[in-house]
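Revision sheet: structure tokens.
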Amino acid sequence: MEKIKVQDSVGAVLIHDMTQIIPGITKGPRFRKGHVVREEDIPVLLSMGKEHIYVWDQTPGLIHENEAAERLAKASCGPGITLDEPKEGKITFTAAQDGLLYVSEDGILALNSLEYIILSTLHNHRPVKKGAKIAGTRVVPLMIDETLVLEAERLANTFSTPLLEVRPLKSFKVGIVTTGSEVFQGRIQDKFGPVLKAKVEGWGSVVLGQTFASDDISMIQHSIRDHLNQGADMILVSGGMSVDPDDVTPTAIKEMGAELITYGAPVLPGAMFLLAYMGNIPILGLPGCVMYSKTTAFDLFAPRLLAGERLSRLDIVKTGHGGLCLDCPVCSYPHCSFGK
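Predicted:
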């Protein structure tokens, strides 16, 4: 701690809060601990009756918490994120656009393993809206050894992708194939179409069309190929996903030459979810729960596809940890444990 004249304090770091009292108007901290004194602060300090102030004794190799937080934030931040101004060694990250949050879990662990470094985030693959708070960083001491910050910056650069980014969802042309002889024959009303259309449009994509097929392998395959020929970027096949002998949707998809990624996901509801690819076009087999459950495996995986990912079986099976929906009376997803 060092006592210096106010007139000589530009660039110095305050070691405690300083209260300003204006009778009838305000009483509270005018300058916070850690504030870096600026030229325009001098008249204010003098008006507060301060001839001398106590500041941090500058030591070579130490940097101020605000500078350290700013460097950490910039090292961690990728596209689609806005950083606020540093305050008391803290910086808040907010989404600059609607999209899906991507977090490098290994990168966050690496940074937080360093002494005095803190980076706290929301969960990976969380849908976020523009302006939403998604992360925050800070350093613990008022002044921190710069070598720690340099090491954090080096670690962040060792990862192939940013530690944090918000990826926008692409606008896909989506074809819907609704299977089931009872629907195809008109014996019951289609309930899948309106649900899927609302979800697709809510994600910013468009429904290219919806076709109906009976429980017939060749008819299902023909409907899928018809949407592909029309330029679909994604195919949703609803119904016929159970193990009943007359539920032939998985067989139809596999036998048309698609690359099967998974038939089954460790997610409830949505265990009978199917993902396959025809070239680069994802085909999603959707179980009946998508029709009546507010949030299912479909809501976890479709946005990641729309964000440009090509999902593997490992990506699917990892969701078992957190893949249990609690069926809350009022669904609050994504503000809950589902898919985390």
